Amino acid sequence: MTHQWSRRRRRLLQALAAGTALTALPVSWGRASPSPITRRSPTGGSGIPAVGLGTWITFNVGDNQRLLDSCANVMKAFFDGGGTVIDSSPMYGSSQNTVGYGLDKLDARDRVFAADKVWTRDGDATRRQQRESADLWRVKQFDLLQVHNLVSWREHLDTLKAMKEEGAVGSIGITTSHGRRHRELEQIMASEPIDFVQLTYNPVDREAEERLLPLAREKGIGVIVNRPFRQGALTERLAKEPLPDWAADVGANSWAQLILKFILAHPAVTCAIPATTRVDHVRENLAAAQAPLPDDDLRERISDTIRSL
Amino acid sequence: METLFSYHPRDLLLFSPRVYWTLVAGNNEVYWPLALLAPVVGLWLMWTLAKLGQARQRTGLAVLGAAWLFVTWSFLWAEYRSINWAITWAIGPFVLQGCLLLVLAGTAGSTSIPARHRYLIAMMLVAWGTLIHPLGFLLDDRPLGEADSWLLFPDPLSITTLGVVLAIARGRWLALSLPIPLLWSLVGGTTLLGLGSPIGWGMLAGAGLALAAWLPLTR
Ligand SMILES: NC(=O)c1ccc[n+]([C@@H]2O[C@H](COP(=O)([O-])OP(=O)(O)OC[C@H]3O[C@@H](n4cnc5c(N)ncnc54)[C@H](OP(=O)(O)O)[C@@H]3O)[C@@H](O)[C@H]2O)c1
C-alpha cells in the first residue's frame, strides 16, 4: 500500500508540474477576454453565462490524483473566464465527485451554478439521490435539478416540484439527448411547470428547432444545449477542414466557436454546455459567448457548410 | 434515422480511453512483478496443458482461480468500479468464477487430451490471452506501461481461462466454468472496441471460437 501511495504521489507531482506548465502556456483565447454574454434565468436572479461546462466522460476520472487535478485546472479556467453553469449526473461515474473535488480545491462553491440530475428508476428515491449527489458535489443544494432522460419523470418531477416549493432546489427541469423522445418532452414542457429543458442541438442535429425551441420560448422555459459537438465527433471531423473566411465575420476563430455561436444565436437557447478535458478548449468555448452572433442567413450557411463536410 | 447514425461505439462508454489506460498503467506500476511474471507463467500454463497430468492440471486451475479473485479485488473493485458503476454487477460473477476454478482445482481428476479441434482452439486461446493480447498496446500506439497482462486484468484473463477450461474441464464442469469468461470476453471485447483498441476484435473472435469448440458440432 505504501508502495502504491509513493508511486501515486510521484505521479501527482509530475501532474502538478504538467498542470503548471499547461496554465503557463500562452493562449489565443486569453484570460483577458471579456466575460461571456449572459441570458435571462427563467427563475429570475442574475443572468446565466451562455457557455457552461458538461462533465460526461471528461470528468469521470476515478480517484486518479493527476486527472482530478487536471479537471480542477479546467474548472479554474472556466470560473476565471466567467463561466458558472456546471452540469453533471449520478449516471456519469465519478464525475460528480470530480466536480466536488474541484469546487473544494478552488473554493468555488459560490461561483458555480450547480446543475445536476436525478437518474433512477425508483420514483421514490428523488430526495435520497439528491442528497448523495450533493455530498459528492460538496454543496448544500443544487441550483438546478433535472430529471435525466425522462427516467420515471412523473414521480421525480412531483418530488422536485415539492422541493422547489420548500426552497430545497433553485429550479427544476428535464433532459433528453440525441433527439430522443421529443414528443414526450414536448408534452411535459406544455403541461408541467418546469424551469429548464436540456436537449441536443447543434448545426447538424436541428430537430429541436421544429417544436421544442419555439415552445420553450413561448413558455419562458430555459434551454440548456447538450452535445454541442456531438460528443467531439463534430470537432474531430472538422479539425481537418480549413475554417471558412466568413467565420471571422462573427468573430469565430475555430470550428468549435462557430458551432457554439450557431447554437447561442438561437433566441430560445439559454446556454450550451460543452464538455472538455482541456484548459485551452474551455477558454476557447467561453470566448465563443461574445457578440457578434450570426444572423439567420449566416446560421443557415454554418449549418449547410458543416453538413456538407 | 439520422439520429441513429449519430451513435458511435464510444457512446456506449462512460469513460475515455485516456482514463481507462491510466488505470491500467497505475495497476501495472503497483503490481509490476506480476506484470513481468505474466508471460512466463503463461508459457508454463501452456506447458501444463501440453502435458496434461493431474497435479499439473490442478496447479494450473488453482493459479487461474487465484488470478480471478485477485483481479476482482485489485482491479475491478479497487479501480475500475470508480469509473464504471456497471462493474458492481460483475463483482459477484468474477468471485464465483474464481471459486469455481479453485473447487475444480481441488477436485479435478486426470483428463486426457480433448478432441483435436477443441485442444487446438484451447491452446490458441491460452497463447492469445497470455502472450498476444497484452501486445495490443502496440496497435493503439500506447506505451508499454499500459500493456494489460492476464494476471492483472480481466480481458486477457478471460480469454486465457476459456482456453484452460476447454482443455481440462468436461461435461458439467465445462458448462459451469465457461459462461462467465465467455460473457466477459464479449463485454471486454466490445469495451475495447469502444475505446478504439482493435485488439477487442481478438476477444470477440476468441469468444466465438470458444463457443464453437464447446458446441456439439466440433466435438
Ligand atoms: N441526457 C442528458 O442529460 C445529456 C446527454 C448528453 C450530454 N449531456 C451533458 O452535455 C454535456 C456535453 O455533451 P457531451 O459531453 O456529450 O459532448 P460535447 O460537449 O458535444 O463534446 C465533448 C467533446 O468535445 C471536445 N471539445 C470540447 N471543446 C472543444 C473545442 N473547443 N475544440 C475541439 N474539441 C472540443 C472535447 O474534447 P477535449 O477534451 O479534447 O476538449 C470532448 O471530447 C455533457 O458533458 C453532459 O454534461 C447531458
Automatic annotation (TrEMBL), chain A:
Segment forming the signal sequence: 1-23
User: Which Pfam families would you find in this protein's record?
Assistant: Aldo_ket_red (PF00248)
Which PROSITE patterns would you find in this protein's record? TAT
Record key words, sorted: Signal
UniProt domain NADP-dependent oxidoreductase: residue ranges: 51-299
Which InterPro entries does this chain map to?
Answer: AKR2_Oxidoreductase, NAD(P)_OxRdtase_dom_sf, NADP_OxRdtase_dom, TAT_signal
Keyword Signal in annotation? yes
Signal among keywords: yes
Gene3D superfamilies per the UniProt record, alphabetical:
NADP-dependent oxidoreductase domain
Output this protein's name: Aldo/keto reductase
TrEMBL record, chain B:
One Pfam match = DUF6064
Q: Is the keyword Transmembrane in the record?
A: yes
InterPro entries, alphabetized:
DUF6064 (IPR045708)
Q: Where are the transmembrane segments?
A: 30-49, 61-80, 86-107, 119-139, 151-169, 176-193, 199-217
**The keyword Cytoplasm is annotated on this UniProt entry:** no
Keyword terms of this UniProt record: Membrane, Transmembrane, Transmembrane helix
Superkingdom of the source? Bacteria
Record protein name field:
MFS transporter permease
Q: Which organism is it from?
A: Marinobacter segnicrescens
